[in-house]
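Notes, p. 3: input format for complexes.
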Amino acid sequence: MPTPYELECDVGSHTQDPPQIEGGMPPKLIPGAEPAPLPGGLISDPTGDQNLLAVKVAVKGLVGGDSQNENPSEAMEVEIQDGGLGTQADQCEGLAPNNVQSRTRPCGFPVTPQAPDLTAFSEDTPVGAPADGKPTKAQFTEDEELEAKKMLMMVENEPVGQDLSAVAKIVMQGDSEAAMEDGSQIAEELGINLVTNENQEDMASVADTLSVRVVGCLGQLEGGVESMSIQEASGVVSHGQELAQEPVTVSLQTTEDAVQDNQHQVSADESQVEPEARQASIAVRPQFRKMHSIPYTATTESAQIPETPIRPSIQEGTGAQECVEQMGQGYYESIIKKMEELVNDAEKRRGLSREVLQQLKRRADNISKHLSGPYLDEVLLKESHKLDLILKKLSQSLELTESDSKWLFDIAEDLMEEDVASREEDGDKLEPTGTKHSVNSLYSGCEGPAQSLPPVKQAKLHRGDSVGFGTPLGYIAPTVDRPKQQCVQATDDSPYPKFIKEEVYSRALRGTQPWVYESEVSNNPQSPFNKLVSGKVVYSTAEGLCQYMHDLDPCRVTLGIIGAIVCEKIAQEVEDSFDEGVHYEHVKVLGKGSYGRVSLCCTLSDKKRTEFVKKEVLNKAKFRGSEVVVPLQILHRNIPQVYGFINTPENYYILQEYSGCNLTQFLLSNEMDEIEIKEVTAQLLDVVAYLHSFNIYHRDIKADNIGVRPGLDGYGLRIKLLDFGACITPQDSPDLLGLTAAHCSPELCTVLVKVFLGKQACEDLLCRVDWGKVDTYAVGCTVLHMYKKKHIFYEKMKSFPEEKNTKELLKYVSEYPRACLQEIPDVCVGEMRGLLEDLMSVVTSRVTPKDALRHRALAMFVKSGNGNSQVRPASSSSFTRAPSTNVLLHNGAQPQATRIESCTKMEEGGIPDFGALLNFDSCEDQMDEDTGQCDSSSSNDSRDMDEEDMESDSDHE
Ligand SMILES: Nc1ncnc2c1ncn2[C@@H]1O[C@H](COP(=O)(O)OP(=O)(O)OP(=O)(O)O)[C@@H](O)[C@H]1O
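Output follows (957 residues plus adenosine-5'-triphosphate):
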C-alpha cells in the first residue's frame, strides 16, 4: 500500500502530473515523504451521539494503471460506522482501525427503497452559512478531527486510479426522532439541504428528481505542501437512510489554491480557527443560491399528467393547411386546458398567481387571429417556442425549483411529441413547409449507431399545399406531362430569391415518391463533387435521385452526390441571376477563414430582405465538399442551412444561413451565467451527437465555429455549429486539415507529436484515432472557453516561445493528458464540473456526446428517452439579450481563429488552429526526436503559412 504521498503522486503518475503552472497545478509531490501533521477537521457529529453519524467517502476508481481500477463504475468506499471515531493518533498512520470498513462497491449509490418518514423541510433552512452569519455548530473535537484525518488517510491509501477528482457522499444514519433533529442540525451546519418528505413512497422519486447542492469547504486536510479538501457537496441527505443521489465532490488542492479560493483553512490548533473562516468554508456561491435556495415541499402529485390525447385526429383527405389549422387550434386549446389545471393545482399548493394562464390565453388569441391567414405555420412555430418561454417565465416568476421547471418542460415536450406523433399516425405524414421539415428533423434525434444515411423525413404533400417559410413560396401541383406526379410551382409574388425557393422546394419534396424530372449528368473535373448535374431541373426526392444516380453510376450513390446535385443546380441558377448590387448587397465582413472572406449579405427584394452569409473559397483546390454537402444533408436546427453554392471559374461561393456572431466574439462582450452555458452545451452536444449518429465527425469544434443568436423573442441562446471544412464522413480518410491545436485531445496530440517526429505514417495513425472522442473533448474545451472567456490553454500557450507554441502545446497536452482538467475554473462546480470531467477525461473513460446529453447537469435542457436527445427550443435562461448586433457592428471584422504558426497574433481568447493542411513532413527537422523539443530556429511552417496567407489576402483584394 503506498504512502499517502505516493498515492497522491500516483493520482497523477498514471499519466504523469503536469508541472506546476501559474495559477493552478499542484506542485510535484515527494514520493515517500513523511506526511506532515494533519490537523484538519472534517465532518463531525456535533451531538456527540456517535451512533447517528456515518461518513462514507467513496473515491472514484477511474482508469488507472492497475486492472482493478479500470472499471470506472467501481469505487472504493470507506465507511465509518457506529460513530467509531478513533482517538488515537497512531490510528492515522494509514492503517484501518477496527471500526473502519473498507470495501469496493459500484459507484451508483442506489436509493434505498424504504425511506423513512421525515419531517418537513423548513423554508427557513439556510443553504450554506447560517443566517446570523456565525456558525452554529462547528465545535470539532480533537477526536473528530483525528477521525477526519484518519478517514482521509484511508482514502489516500487506496489506489484511486489516475483521476484527480474523488467522490464522496455523506450519509447520516439513525432512526430516532432525536437523530432526525441532529441530522437536520448537521445538515444545516454543513450547508446541506435536508430533503424531507412525509410520504415514504414518494421519497425515492423525489430523491431521483431532486438535486440539492451545497458549495463550500466541508473540511480540509493539510499535508506538507499538499492538502486535500472537500470543496463542495451536492447530495440528498436524508435521515436514517441512504438516499444520496448526488456525490460530494472532493478535490485535491494545494493550500495556496485553497487560500486563493477563500476556502476554509484548518490550522493546526483548532482553537485558532476564526469563526469567519469556518463560515467562509460553507458559503454558498451566489449563482447556485439562485437555483437551489428555493424551499421545496416534496410532493410528486402535481407531476401526474393525465394521459388524455391532446391532438384531434387528422381527418382522412384533409388538406395540409386545414389539418394544421385544426391541429393548431386543438393543440393550443389542450395546452391551455392543461396549463390551467396545472396553474390551479400550483395555486392551491402555493398560492401562485395566474399570470401564466393569462399569457397563454393571449397566445391562443394570437393564434386564432392568424388561423385563416397565410402565416399560420410561422405563427404555430413561433407559438410553440413561446409556450416554452411561458413555461420559463412561469418557473422564474413563481420561483419554482429546478425539478418543478423540469416537469413543466416535460409536459410541453410531451405535448409537442404528441403533435409530431399525431402527424405521423397511420402513414399520414404531414410536413407542410420546409421550415417544419427542418424543425422536425430534431425528433429523429440521434438514435442508435446509424451506419447509413440520415433518415429522409417522410412528407406527404397534398395537391394545393403550400411550401415556404410562412409566406408561401409555392404550392404543390401536378406535373404537366405526368399528371399523377407532383411538383412545386412557385408563386409569382414570393419575395425570396430563387435559390432559396429551390432549396425549400427540394427539401419539401424529399420524402415524396421518387420522381426525377429531366436531368442530365455530366463530368466536370473542376467540380469538388466530381459529378454534377447540369440539366434543367433537379427537383426530386432524395430516393428518386439516389435511384437515378444508381442507374448511372452505382459506385457513387452517396448522399454527397445528392447534395452536390442540389448545390450545382442552385449554383447554376444563382450564377445566372444573383448579382451583388442587383439582387443582394454586401453588409459587412463577418470574419476571415482559411478559405477567404465571410460576409453578411442581404437580398434587395422590396418585399422582404433576407440576410444570408456568403463565404468565399478563394482556393478551389483546397476546398472540401463536406463544407457544403454535410449541412445540406444533415437537417438539424443547430446547423445553418446552405442556400446555395456558386461555382465561378475562379472561386466557389457558399451561401448559407446567417447564424449570428461567433461564440468567441459573443464572449468578448457578454457574461454567460451557468444556465446559459448549460443551454449552449446541451445544444452543442445535441448537434454533435446527431452528426456522430451518421458517423460524421466535425473535428473542429471551437468557439470560433459556433454562431450565437438570441432565441426566439430574445430569450435564451440559439447556437449553430459552423464550418464543416474539417469534417469527415464515413467515405473520407482522416487528414490534418482544419484541426485546432488547442482543442486537440491528448490522444490526438500524442498522434500529432508522433507525426511531427515522423515516427509513423500519418495516415496509419490518423485512421486509429477515435474522432468521436476527439469531438467530445473539443466540446469540453468549448464549455471551458465559456467559463473562462479564453480558450483552454490560452495562458499556457503564451508561456511558450511564440514561434513554436503550437508544437509545444501539442507536446505538453500529450505528456499531461489531465492538464485540461486542471484548467477547469473554480467557479465551475458540482454537476457541470462532473460533466466537464466526463467530457475531457482520458480517452478510455471519456463519454460520448449522446451519453453526455443524459448528464444530470443538462437535465433542464435535454429530454432523454428512447435514445433520442432533444434540446429544449427555448431554455430557462433568464437572459434577454441581443448579442449579434452590438458585437458585430462594433467589432467589424472580428478576430478569427489564428493559425497555429501565427499565434503571435492570437486575439484575446481566440484559438490558434491549423487553418490549412500542415506540412508535418518538414517537422522532423524541427523537433528533437529524443527529447521531443522543437528547434526554435526552425519556423518554416510559420513562414510558409504566413506567405500563403498574404497571397490569399492579395488575391482576395
Ligand atoms: N453562417 C454563418 N453565420 C455567421 N457567421 C459565420 C457563418 N459562417 C462563418 N461565419 C463567421 O466567419 C468566421 C469564419 O468562418 P469559417 O470558420 O466557416 O471559415 P473557414 O474558412 O472555414 O475558417 P477556418 O477553417 O480558418 O476555421 C466564423 O468564425 C464566423 O465568425
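Residues 590-591, 593-595, 598, 613, 615, 640, 656-659, 662, 704-705, 707, 722-723, 725, 738, 894, 896-897, 913, 915 surround adenosine-5'-triphosphate (CB under 6 Å).
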